[in-house]
Structures are given as structure tokens and as C-alpha cells.
Amino acid sequence: MYFFDKNSAFDRNPLFTDSHHTVLYHDWYCHADALHSLLRPRSLAAVICHNTMGSALSYLACLQNRIVPLLIDSKMDAKLMERLLGIYEPEYIFKPASAVHPLYTMEDYGVYRHSRQKHELYPELALLLTTSGSTGSPKLVRQSYANIQSNAAAIASYLSLTSQQRPVSSLPMHYTFGLSVINSHIFCGAAEYLTEDTVFDEAFWKFCRQYRITSLAGVPFTYECLKRIGFTGMDLPDLTLLLQAGGKLSKRLQQEYGTFAAAAGKKFIIMYGQTEATARMSYLPADACLKKIGSIGIAIPGGTFHIMENEHTEITAPDTIGELCYDGTNVTLGYASGPSDLRLGDMRHGRLWTGDMAYQDADGFYYITGRKKRFVKITGSRVNLDEIEQLFKNAFAGSDFACAGEDDDIWLFTTMPAAAGPELEDFFFKKTKLHPSCLTLRAVAAIPKNSSGKTQYKKLQNFIQQGGSA
């Protein structure tokens, strides 16, 4: 599968650049052709992901040869990774080259035989992504070739991407958002600039200046970090596109970055998506950023949203909350919980029940109010934990919060000092009219996040269920 004509002028374009050298699209095709004669067609392969040349080439070479890659976070706990590999038994594994002789090498990566297991794979199955990059869960999202192609095309369209774009790998490639940056830019023949440095490293910004990076993608945590390091005061004239997805950005940060972008001649675009929709489902056009604070925007080209009261009844009145449902060719095939599920076909048929509660305003813009399952009952009334969390994030700049809980007991984890407890309790009561006795405060050094910057609510919930003991 090629994202575009293999014989086009793109074959002479840079594909990946790191701090050492550049590989071309032509190099990708040569590696793919070489692997075609070495690896069994329609086999399963694991790719241990880093933001490096060999890792990215491994993923692309698998797609070209209709070998199904399972992308795994290189930072996953070794025992959990071993368990995941033991469950699915991929025939091949792509990983950083070691002293052991590989079947083939691509830049810093080697291809190794992992097992003799031959899997029955659905003909259109293209890619497997983990639902949690840190727990080693065997539950995977099954993506098709059409899913990847259509979502890459839609993203390239609404972002007006060209072959002249120069995005930096600010997110891990095993993560659906980070991978979508690669896919959408390759779709239009652009190059991806690879670094394993983070936004906290001076080397990252030196890299951005050296290669005149034009776009940066981040999750809410990324933009919190950028604020701490004084990003808006940096001299980065070529960086004109700022992208955000991977969770709800606070209204405060949306206002701040939207204002900064408008004054600096840049575009700040907020997006919404899920791995189950390949990547993106909506975007907020840059010119609406400051007009529609808190909105996820509108559906991507080729997709449509519906606000549903139940499985059969659609809500058409504006400003009325229901479950957000999405239709589009980027809706993935379904899940796999084990190797036998890899033969399954399309279980969703283009429709995804997102599990998010949302509403549409009178202008057609959508707003997420919280997760369907992130509710607890306080004295008999349903309370949305996401809304409580967002209230604190919006009000207390510079501090992080996470909300978990059980019926009649909301736990608020915060990086504010324990001495701030009375202030937080008073704020909670004023905003919610709920008695502070139903709020348990816990000061922590940091809110637990995964490698994609998302809050790990399961760890917080486990903490509560263990009676608050670490």
C-alpha cells in the first residue's frame, strides 16, 4: 500500500531527518522491497517504538508489504511487554539492532524472527495499536488500510498540509496522535523530523531552530509544560502551526495560546479523536479558537457527528447533552483481545459510540462535557468527575489536578500544597454547592501520566480502593 504514487517526484524528497542525517522516500521503498523477499506475506510483526529512523521505517515498511505491525511503547515494563508478546506471538520483531545477527537492518533497527506462529489475519487488517501504552493490556485496536488512508487524507486537508511542512516528533509514534502526524505528512510528501529529546530539553529547541520546524503537536500536558518553560517568549519564526489533541485543554490555556497565536501570526488548532477512530474526528478552525472556548470544533472532512439520547433517538436541539456518536471511514474495525480476534472483520461498520457526553451549539460546534462512565452519585445526584476536574484546572493556574472517586466520595488529587486544602474546599462548595465532606483532598508531587501525557485514572482509582495507602 502506498499513500501516493511510488513513481512520483516524492521519491526524491526527504522522508525522515534526525540530528545526524536524512533518509529519502526512495530509501523507504528500497527497504520495503528488500523485506518483501525476506518476510512472510500477511504475517504479524511487533515494532518496539522509538522516535528514530529505524522505528519509523519499520512501521512504514510493514504497511508497504501488508505485514501487520503491532506498535509497542519501548518504555513499557519489560514483564508486561513479554506478556503481550507471549499472548500474540508475532512472527517478527523490529527493534534496536543488537549484537545478535538480524534478518535485516534499517538504520538503527534490526528485524528478528520471534516465533513460528502463523496467524489468520483479516485481509484488510493493517495495524494494531494498544489501548493502553503502559499496562500491557492485550486489548488492541484493529485498524484497516482504508482507516489509515482516509484519516491521513482528512487531516492533511483541514490542516492544508503540503510537502514543505517540517513537523517535529514531539509525541511518541506508538501513540495514535503521534502516529497521525507521521501519516498525514507522509500523505502529502512532507518530511518528519525525528528526535527523542523532550520539550524540557534545550537540545529539542536547538533542533527546532536548526531545521526550521514548522509545526508542533502536543497533548494538554505538553502545553502546560510549554507554559512553564516560557515557550511564548521563544524566537521560533518558522513554527507557525500548533496542534493540540489527546484530552481536553483547559479554557485558560485555550485562551492563552489562542491569543498568543493570533498575535504572533500562528495557527493554534484544537482537535479531538480516539484510537478507535484511527486518530482524528474533529478540529476547531484557528479562526474560531477564541470565539468557541472549550469546543472540540466540527467533524473532519468525510465525518459526521450525532448527539444521541439512546441507541435509536438522535438529539437535534442545540445545547442538549447526549452521547457523542461519530460516522466516518476512519472508524476502526473493532478490538482484539487475543490472536483469534485478528481474523475478525469490520465490527463497527463505520459508526463509533465515543463514550463521551457532549452537546452541539446553535452554530454547529461541539463541546465535550465528560465521559459517560466518569460519573459518581453524590447524595443521589449524578456528578461528572471530568467537569469537577476542569473547574479546578481552570481556576488554579500553574497547578495540576485529577479527579477520581466512588459514590458519595470524590477524590481530588492536586500538586498544590496540603495547606491549600481549605481554599480548595471553599472553592468546591461555591461552585458545586456540594458539601466539602464528600471531597477528599490528596496533595501529590505529580499527577501520574502515561508516556502520551494522559492522566492514569486507573492508578488513582486503585489508590482509592486500597484505602488511600500508597
From TrEMBL:
PROSITE patterns: AMP_BINDING. Gene3D superfamilies: N-terminal domain of ligase-like. It comes from the Bacteria. Coiled coil: none annotated. Residues 19-335 form the AMP-dependent synthetase/ligase domain. Pfam families: AMP-binding (PF00501). PANTHER family: LONG-CHAIN-FATTY-ACID--COA LIGASE (PTHR43767), SURFACTIN SYNTHASE SUBUNIT 1 (PTHR43767:SF10). This is AMP-binding protein. It comes from Megasphaera cerevisiae DSM 20462. The lineage of its organism: Bacteria, Bacillati, Bacillota, Negativicutes, Veillonellales.
